[in-house]
Give the backbone structure.
Amino acid sequence: MIELENAAYSYGGAELLSDMSLQLGAGSFHFLTGPSGAGKTTFLKLCYAELVPSAGTVRLLGQDVRQMDRDDVARLRRRVGVVHQDCQFLDHLSLRENIALPLEVSGHDMNADSINLDELLGWVGLAERARALPPELSGGERQRAALARAVIMSPDVIIADEPTGNIDWEMSLRLLTLLVELNKMGKTIVIATHDLNLIRATKAEVSARVLRIANRRLQLAGSDL
Amino acid sequence: MSAQRPSRGARASAPLHALIAAVFRPSGRADRVVPPTGFTARLTVFTAAAMAFLGVFALALSLATGRLAERWGAELARTSTVRISAPAGQMAAQTEAVVRVLQSTPGVRSARVLEDDELSALLEPWFGPELPVADLPVPSLVEVIEQGEGFDAEGLRQRLAAEAPGSVLDDHTRWRRPLIDAADRLRLLGLLSLALIAASTAAMITLAAQAALAANARLISTLRLVGARDTFIARAFVRRFTLRAIGGATIGTLAGGLAVLALPSADAAGGFLTGLGFQGWHWLWPLLIPPLAGLVAFLATRTAALRTLRGFK
């Protein structure tokens, strides 16, 4: 699904990530940890083609990101769902419209397709909030809505950048349960977090691999987690 | 440093006519996603209206000077004058000789000696009315009307010099050329003004589109994140700006047309400036201004949008 081979990323002459090699297979579950500023978000951006490596190779769903043009990137992002910490909603659209946004931009006919938006809203527990505008939602509701938007195209990979950063523990577990469910459905999950309790809770449910970024390099985390 | 991605949307897009047709097709999806663009909308309508208003006048100027050049050219090209300056005793003989030569010259339809009252009328602007032309050493004038391909001016000059040494043929070339040149220059200025108006419209709409795109940076970033292609995002902006430009230009064209209609009639006053306007089927020309404004807006907004979107990942 995601393959990095000696990949590096530099910005403004400074190398932010060096010599990263990794293969994330289909249906795997990965956590990405590391101190703030270590490059977790930069790493994730390489994984959904927001950034192009300055050295080495990054292959996403079999495609070398260097060979992708802008339309290829757009198509890729319909197969890779992304959940941002700040969710990136459009405030003038309702929650339902925000969740349906990937369908809108890819030209899907919501009536003809088998996608059941109401079912999805129910799955993330937001059926009652469908008409609410994003500023009216709590942090937990926003994160669950962002997850619903990320999965509406039934992507192969779901990438979440600090999805529990702004929500309480109970809501974090609720979100985690949804991600574990998706993983059990065969989706590849990559989550950047510094919440070790969340990682421990997940490892009790599924076989998750923990990666750590330190000194610009990627390492497998120790067994103390 | 990260590499710049090529944009297939800009490189291998659909034919222009298909893209323009898409502007008029209701685009619920893209229109729903992009919120109203506030002041840039009003700016576009105002700019298009003002430029269309000016465009109507530039067009009227261009067409009027075109007509003028043709009329002056045609009128002056068909007539010539022979001026006879001779001592009083020889004036009648030389005038008769001139008329005789002219009547036997191929390409001359008629030759007529101007009467005293006609000479008075010609001199009136300088000497006032009731000028005693008969008592003054005023040259005699013969008006020559041409026919067919006209006459050989050089050959006629030589024959006149032989038969009536005091005669001078004026075929109006030295009057006609500067007048036609002036009219042609004015017509060119009118067309240049139209081009400048189109370029200014494109520049203003480009600025307005860029402002709208910059104000929607977060929206564009989100749309890219969820898999929107550049053409999808650009479509909403292009459609809005094109339709606004057409709407504004229609208002401006109507106002400009009414203003031209309100100009004094050429028949009543007879001067050049009062002839500024449209005649006959020329009234159809201003109808091209709104679609042209739409085309300019379409190209300007699409170029600006696709260029700006390349700045987003």
